[in-house]
Specification:
Residues 66-121 form the F-box domain. Residues 48-69 are annotated as: Disordered. The protein has a 14-stranded parallel beta sheet with strand order 3-4-7-8-11-12-14-16-18-22-23-24-25-26. It has helices spanning 32-35, 46-62, 74-83, 86-91, 97-105, 119-132, 156-163, 237-245, 350-353, 369-377, 409-413, 427-439, 456-465, and strands at 26-28, 39-41, 108-111, 137-145, 148-149, 153-154, 173-178, 200-206, 210-211, 214-215, 227-233, 252-256, 263-266, 273-277, 287-290, 298-301, 311-314, 322-327, 333-334, 337-340, 345-347, 358-363, 383-388, 417-423, 445-450, 477-482. The protein has 13 helices and 26 strands. The chain is 23% helix and 24% strand. It has a domain at 73-106. Helix 3 (74-83) crosses helix 5 (97-105).
Length: 506
C-alpha cells in the first residue's frame, strides 16, 4: 500500500516593520528620527491593522473636503487665470463667488481669435469684457478684422478708443493686424503706439503713423520692447529705421512681406535674431545692410531661397552663429571682401564666417563645386542643412575624392550633423551624399529625407551606393525618412524663439 502523500506545511506569514523591514518584536532604529530616539516598535496583528485603517477612512469622510486649487492664495490664482485663454478665464466665474472676484481683478489675456464670434460682434464683445473687467490687460490681440466692416464701417476710430481704455495702460503684449486688403494702406490707430511697457509687439497689413520718419507725433520710445514683428507694412524703410531705433532693448526682429522696403539698414546693439520672410519676388529688389550689431547670433531668411535680398551685406556681426537659407555658388575673395552667394550676401571680414556654426542653403547648380566652395567659406560649421534642387545633379564625384587638393576644414574637424532634403532615387544623388560620408571625419548623423516611399530593397540599394564600409567616421549614423518635396522654410516665427538652437530643423 502506497504511503499517503504528505501535506505541504503552510509557510507562516511574517509581518514586517513598515519602517525598517525587520520582523515584529524588535527595536526599530528608523523610529529615531520620528520620536527623538530608539524605542520598542511592536507591529500589530492584521485584524488590528484593518480596524485602524477603517477608522481612519471613516474619520476622513467626516472631515470637510477641500481641493488643492481652492487652498491657493489669491495672487497665485490670479496668475493662473491671467494665462488662461479669454473664454476659459471668464468661465472661472461660474466656479464660485471667490473666482468671480478674482477674474475681475486678474490681469487679462484678451484675444479676439478665442471668442469664436462673427466679425460683426467681436468689437462689441471686447468692449463688454473691458467694461466688466476692473483689472489690467496684459495681452491684447486683434488680428482678423477688416479695417472697413460692413456692419460697423471704418473701425479705426473704434479701435483707437478701445486702445485708450484705462485697463490697457500697462499692456505687455500687443498684436494688431488688419485682414489683408488690396485697397489703400490701412492706417494703424495712433493709440497703438502709446504703450511704453510693451515687451512684444506685432503690426500687420497696415500703415504705421509717422511724421518725417519719426514714429508717432513727436516720436515714441519702447524701452522694454524685446520682440517686434512687422508684416506687410506699407511705410518706407525710414519708418522701420525709426521704430528699431525706438527699441533700445530689442532682441528679435521679424520682417515679413514688406514690399515697400528697398534699402533696409539694421543697427542695434541688443538685437540677437533677425528674420526675413517674403511670399513674393519683391524681396529680390531689397538691399539689406547689417552694421553695428555686436550681439546678432541669427540671420534667418525663410520661405524660398530663390526670394532673397538682392544684396545682403554684413558689416559687423562678430557673434553670428546661424545663417540661412542661402542659394547658388560662392566666389573667391575679391578686393578684401568675401562674397558668399554672388549678388546675395557679402561680409567684410573672413573672421566673421568662422563664428557660423549652423548653415542652411540650397544647391541650384549642376556640380558639387558650389557646395565645396560654401563649406570652405564656413570652416567651423557644426550643422549643415542642404536642399537639393530637382533633377540638376550629375554624377561628378568618383570614389568620394575631392578634385581640388585644398582641404575643407569643417569636414576634417567640426561637421557633426547634416541633413539632405529632396533626395531622389538616382545614382547622382547617392554620389553627392557619398562625398560627405567619405570625407566628413567627425560626422555623427546624416539625415536623408527622400521624396519617395521607403522599402527594404530601396534602403539596401542606397546604403550600398553610399559605401558605408569606407566612411570617414566610424561614428557616422545614417537615417532615411520619407517626406514631401521640400520647397521652402516656413517657420518664420522661430525668429523670436531664441532658445531654439536650429530654426531650420523641422
Amino acid at each position: 500500500m502506497a504511503p499517503a502523500p504528505q501535506r505541504e506545511s503552510k509557510r507562516r506569514r511574517t509581518y514586517m516593520c513598515s519602517r525598517c523591514g525587520f520582523p515584529k518584536g524588535h527595536v526599530c532604529a528608523a523610529a529615531d528620527a520620528d520620536c527623538g530616539g530608539p524605542q520598542q516598535l511592536l507591529l500589530t496583528s492584521p485584524e488590528a491593522e484593518k480596524k485602524r485603517k477603517a477608522d481612519g477612512a471613516a474619520a476622513s469622510q467626516d472631515r470637510p473636503q477641500t481641493d488643492n486649487i481652492s487652498a491657493l492664495p489669491d495672487d497665485v490664482l490670479r496668475s493662473i487665470i491671467s494665462f488662461l485663454p479669454t473664454v476659459q478665464a471668464a468661465q472661472t466665474q461660474a466656479l464660485s463667488s471667490r473666482c468671480r472676484s478674482l477674474w475681475r481683478h486678474a490681469p487679462l489675456n484678451l484675444d479676439e481669435g478665442e471668442l469664436n464670434l462673427w466679425e460683426d460682434f467681436i468689437l462689441g464683445a471686447i468692449s463688454t469684457i473691458l467694461s466688466a473687467h476692473d483689472g489690467p490687460v496684459w495681452r491684447f490681440s486683434v488680428t482678423k478684422l477688416a479695417r472697413v466692416n460692413e456692419f460697423r464701417g471704418d473701425i479705426v476710430a473704434t479701435l483707437d478708443a478701445m486702445l485708450r481704455h484705462q485697463t490697457l495702460s500697462s499692456l505687455s503684449e500687443l498684436r494688431l493686424h488688419y485682414r489683408p486688403s488690396t485697397t489703400a494702406p490701412d492706417p494703424l490707430p495712433p493709440a497703438a503706439l502709446r504703450f511704453s511697457l510693451l515687451r512684444v509687439a506685432s503690426f500687420g497689413h497696415c500703415s504705421l503713423p509717422d511724421t518725417d520718419g519719426a514714429i508717432g507725433p513727436g516720436g515714441v520710445v519702447f524701452p522694454n520692447l524685446q520682440e517686434l514683428t512687422l508684416l506687410d507694412i506699407s511705410n518706407s524703410e525710414a519708418t522701420l529705421h525709426a521704430i528699431v531705433s525706438a527699441c533700445p532693448a530689442i532682441r528679435s526682429l521679424l520682417l515679413c512681406d514688406n514690399d515697400a522696403f528697398r534699402r533696409v539698414q539694421i543697427r542695434s546693439r541688443t538685437l540677437v535674431s533677425l528674420g526675413l520672410c517674403s511670399r513674393s519676388s519683391q524681396l529680390e529688389e531689397v538691399e539689406l545692410v547689417i552694421e553695428d550689431t555686436p550681439n546678432l547670433e541669427k540671420l534667418l531668411m525663410f520661405r524660398s531661397a530663390r526670394k532673397l535680398p538682392r544684396v545682403a551685406r554684413v558689416i559687423s556681426a562678430p557673434k553670428l552663429e546661424v545663417l540661412g537659407c542661402l542659394s547658388n555658388g560662392v566666389s573667391e575673395q575679391v578686393f578684401g571682401m568675401t562674397y558668399i552667394m554672388p549678388q546675395t550676401l557679402m561680409v567684410d571680414s573672413i573672421a566673421m564666417l568662422r563664428t557660423v556654426k549652423i548653415l542652411a542653403f540650397r544647391i541650384d547648380e549642376t556640380s558639387l563645386t558650389a557646395a565645396i566652395h560654401v563649406l570652405r567659406c564656413f570652416p567651423c560649421l557644426h550643422k549643415l542643412d542642404i536642399t537639393l534642387a530637382e533633377g540638376l545633379f550629375i554624377q561628378i564625384v568618383h570614389n568620394g575624392a575631392i578634385h581640388n587638393a585644398a582641404t575643407v576644414e569643417c569636414l576634417d574637424f567640426h561637421l557633426k550633423e547634416m541633413m539632405l532634403r529632396n533626395y531622389r532615387c538616382k545614382k547622382s544623388y547617392a554620389a553627392f551624399a557619398k562625398f560627405f560620408v567619405m570625407n566628413a571625419r567627425v560626422l555623427e548623423l546624416l539625415t536623408i529625407r527622400t521624396c519617395v516611399g521607403l522599402n527594404k530593397r530601396w534602403l539596401s540599394s542606397h546604403r550600398k551606393l553610399l559605401c558605408l564600409k569606407n566612411k570617414a567616421s566610424a561614428n557616422t549614423r545614417i537615417e532615411f525618412s520619407a517626406d514631401d518635396y521640400f520647397v521652402d522654410y516656413k517657420h518664420a516665427e522661430r525668429t523670436h524663439q531664441l532658445s531654439v538652437a536650429d530654426p531650420f530643423d523641422d
